[in-house]
Design brief:
mainly alpha, Arc Repressor Mutant, subunit A, Four Helix Bundle (Hemerythrin (Met), subunit A), 2 domains, two-stranded antiparallel sheet, 11 helices, 2 strands, elongated
Length: 232
């Protein structure tokens, strides 16, 4: 059986926080002292582990601010599919089909596993989204919409769901923008429905109802699908 050094064990422990969504992109890491106390290791071991992750581009330093999580894990999953989807809007059907299955699952597990920090993060995004609906700030609406789905994936605490979803969101933000542009309705009926659906998914996750959360997410994706198809 291979014996790992303390520094290597520490690095693996930090990597798990990146993989399970505990530290999303942009997160500022706790101080070396706090990490050493939590992991039961020396500050030197923490420093060495952080250096290793920075060397691989997974973490980066901001002088005077601390160490932060980069988007390297998401970026490495990206592929030419992003450009193809943007260039060929008809491919939205394949992406919606994939997202339907993936996001139904992430909503289920987010309702099952979300912790107070997850719920606080999602709640803040919902507040942004609600404000955008009320003010009509479309760019903020599009950004908050994508952030909402990403935060749900993070709250699922499943590394595969998280990074598959991170890849999709990273590749398809432009496509999400195009979809929502296509769903604009001067009457405000569509916006009201989308608002109701997002709040419905949020309520199911917040109240820890996995089956209801999955059902609400599937209904949201199906609504988007049917409206886009109707308009075509």
């Amino acid at each position: 059986m291979m014996v790992r050094s303390v520094a290597e064990q520490t690095r693996l422990a930090l990597e798990m926080r990146l993989l399970d969504g505990s530290w999303p992109v942009g997160t500022r890491l706790p101080s070396e002292r706090i990490l050493a106390e939590k992991l039961g290791v020396s500050r030197n071991s923490v420093r060495e582990a952080i250096f290793s992750l920075k060397d691989r581009g997974l973490l980066f330093s901001k002088p005077g601010s601390g160490v932060f999580v980069s988007d390297r894990l998401q970026a490495t999953i990206s592929s030419p599919w992003r450009q193809l989807v943007v260039a060929h809007p008809d491919l939205r059907w394949d992406t919606l089909e994939f997202r339907r299955e993936l996001e139904g699952a992430t909503a289920y597990y987010a309702a099952l596993r979300s912790n107070p920090d997850d719920l606080e993060r999602i709640g803040k995004i919902i507040a942004r989204l609600t404000d955008a609906y009320e003010t009509g700030e479309k760019n903020e609406e599009y950004g908050a919409d994508a952030d909402f789905h990403q935060a749900i994936a993070e709250a699922s605490h499943n590394s595969m769901f998280l990074y598959l979803h991170s890849s999709i969101i990273h590749m398809l933000r432009e496509h999400i923008f195009l979809n929502l542009m296509a769903l604009e309705d001067p009457s405000g009926v569509i916006t009201a429905r989308l608002r109701e659906q997002h709040l419905g998914v949020w309520e199911c996750i917040r109240s820890h109802q996995p089956d209801a959360a999955r059902k609400a997410m599937l209904a949201h994706i199906d609504f988007t699908w049917s409206e886009l198809a109707r308009r075509e």
